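Researcher: I need the complex structure. Ligand is 3-isopropylmalic acid. Inputs:
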Amino acid sequence: MGSTLAQKVWAGHTVRRGGFGGDDLLYVDLHLLHEVNTPRAFDGLRAAGRTVRRPDLTVGTEDHNVPTISLTGLFDDPAGRRQAAQLRDNCDAFGIPVHRRGDDGHGIVHVIGPEQGLVRPGMTVVCCDSHTTTLGAFGALAFGIGTSQVEHVLATQTLWTGRPKDMAVTVTGTLPAGATAKDLVMTLIARIGTGGGQGHIIEYRGEAVDALSMEGRMTLCNMSVEAGSKAGVVGPDETTFAYLRTRPGMPEGADWDAEVAHWKSLRTDPDAEFDREVVLDASTIRPYVSWGTNPAQSAPVDARVPGPDEFATPEERTAAERALTYMDLRPGSRLQDIGIDTVFVGSCTNGRIEDLRAAAEVLRGRRVADGVRMLVVPGSAAVHRQAVDEGLDKVFTGAGADFRPIAGCSMCCGLNEDRMKAGQRAVSTSNRNFEGRQGKQARTHIASPEVAAASAVTGRITAPADLGDGRS
Ligand SMILES: CC(C)[C@H](C(=O)O)[C@@H](O)C(=O)O
Ligand code: SF4
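Model: Output:
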């Protein structure tokens, strides 16, 4: 029997099999750090008199707490400022490269790794952050780890972890015009639930996945963790190689060819078996939006708010009831009638250049509705530069949106100055919509950049196809 991509990468990195609790000891090729969840790991390292084993395979960036309003913008929370300073000091002390606000290479940790060519097929990548799954788009095995594991990886460049099962998500056919990778992954999570991928690594495959850009694949893999899975992967192919070819530090000539041949060999063998398979028909996927307080509580934009009685289990019914109360929604009302006052385009889910282009395309010749605040925050300094080069900044500001000069997590998580007020309601391109995620008592509807931009124009949840041609 053949092996899956995940099995091959796992086997190739296993230093010791079946240790304590049955976990395997994996070698880590790349360790990424940000300011949250790392200060205690460095404290532990120091207390034990240890050093960082491979600072050359470790990279830090400040992203969660940083103000994105300007280079000199102040941290609104002393604890956040302290964490960011600790990251910089710890990285400097241990010889780890760190990207500070204002650096060319600065940005959200999951956005900068691929841009800088740090992530390649077949690698193992870990980071103190659940959305490390994003990097699986390159055929790397990438997942989040906790603070004590960060300390272990810093000290040893290895990690004890349990071998997950393999799940295939096969997406047949072609996505219709107007449907995006975000809609695809939201449709998947609505179908399998927030625990649907638990204990598994999801491999996305099929015609519709093959057709996605690297940006789209990153959006897909990013939200794998919202389905409870350990990681998400896409088999490396010509799209992957074309993206990597232009990245810094890639081999040249015959060395490049040899590398590509190796990457191709990592793809799942035709006779490999998955523990579970879910098949989705891409042609049925429509623009999606969340109505509840977890990403599975989502529906097509043209649907109605469901009632609790439409759910199969008592747990789902209770969760729906609670979500509807928090979101202040009435069952049976149209999602498209929900008024919003905030729009956020950004985050590691949808803060890359393709996402900004998509949002700008919808906004071109249109205006953000009165009373709506639209925030566009690039995922990295490189995305910001590219957006300015392409004149997207002018489209955003011309439409009345706030286009931020500094990259960061911004309103995705509310760990900085970008928070919503109680009772405010956003369409957000981020990945989490739990109670209070973007501000105390604030309400979040997750969607694609296209839906977010269209909603900014009308002031209610809207798919671009429903905008008509009101461009000036
Ligand atoms: C702060 C960090 C640990 C957290 C995560 O792990 O995902 C954050 O990035 C998030 O999106 O909630
Ligand atoms: S952008 Fe949001 S989801 Fe991504 S790492 Fe930052 S806080 Fe987490």
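Model: Summary of the prediction. Residues 63-64, 108, 129, 131, 347-348, 409, 412-413, 430-431 surround iron/sulfur cluster (ligand 2) (CB under 6 Å).
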